[in-house]
Amino acid sequence: MLEKIKQNTFGHFRYLPEAAGFSVKTDQNLTIINCGLGSSMFNIVCGNCYTEKVQNIVNEFKGQPFAWWISPSIKSKGLSKKLLEHGFVTETEERAMLCDLTNFESSANQLIKIDQVLNRDQLEHFIKVLETYDATARSFYEKLIEPLLNQQEKLFVGYENDIPVVIAILFISGDTAGFCRIYKLW
Q1: Which of 6, 51, 140, 145 could form a disulfide with 82 if both were Cys (CB 3.0 to 4.6 A apart)?
Q2: Strand partners, 30
């Protein structure tokens, strides 16, 4: 299951940048996503590499902030040590939560109306929530064309009294789906 979570998370990082035409380089163990937006939300390295490649990867970003995601399934103390030597900090550790939806019963309490983003107006609502976290969100998401909004990655907006207050991103990969990001205004 851990491998499926890793594939889903890393697939989420790669999917929209690749579809929108940003720089995405992938080899067997490493994906480098450089959206050129000056944000670690959209400039991401995920995976493992030999420690001697770290400086070359840092150079690719030309001083832009970026995040390096390492799956718990990757047991590389050498890589972690090398990243710390290059000034990286462990900003956060993500946790995965699993739910078998076979017997899941939804609550009837519907304080928030949730819509899938399928058009430009809904995308604007999605961006407004996200840009409170990262000002570069608009530059990224405005590059998306409407057919991309209903494929492997699905965007959602939650409304309270018709005001967008929460967003979520669902990524589907094979027989696995995961909410990769959830942001709220309140």
Answers
A1: 51
A2: 47
Q: Is the pTM for the entire model greater than 0.85?
A: no
User: b or e along 52-74 (b: 16 or more beta carbons within 10 Å of the residue's beta carbon)?
Assistant: eebeebbeebeeeebbbebbeee
Rounded CA gap, 168 and 132, in Å?
Answer: 14
Q: Order the strands of the 67-69 sheet from edge to edge.
A: 23-26, 30-34, 44-47, 67-69
Q: Using an 8 Å Cβ cutoff, are 163 and 178 in contact?
A: no
pLDDT in tens, 63-120: 999 999 887 766 667 888 888 898 888 887 776 666 676 777 776 667 889 999 999 9
Name the residue among 71, 98, 76, 94 with its Cα closest to residue 3: 71
Distance CA 55, CA 44 (A): 15
**What is the three-class DSSP state of 65?**
coil
**Contact present, 123 and 149 (Cβ < 8 Å):** yes
Give the residues across from 16 on adjacent strands: none
Distances in whole angstroms, Cα of residue 145 to Cα of each of 5, 24, 184: 27, 18, 24
* CA atoms lying within 13 Å on the CB side of residue 79: 19
- 3-class DSSP state for residue 84? helix
CA 116, distance to chain mean position in Å, is: 17
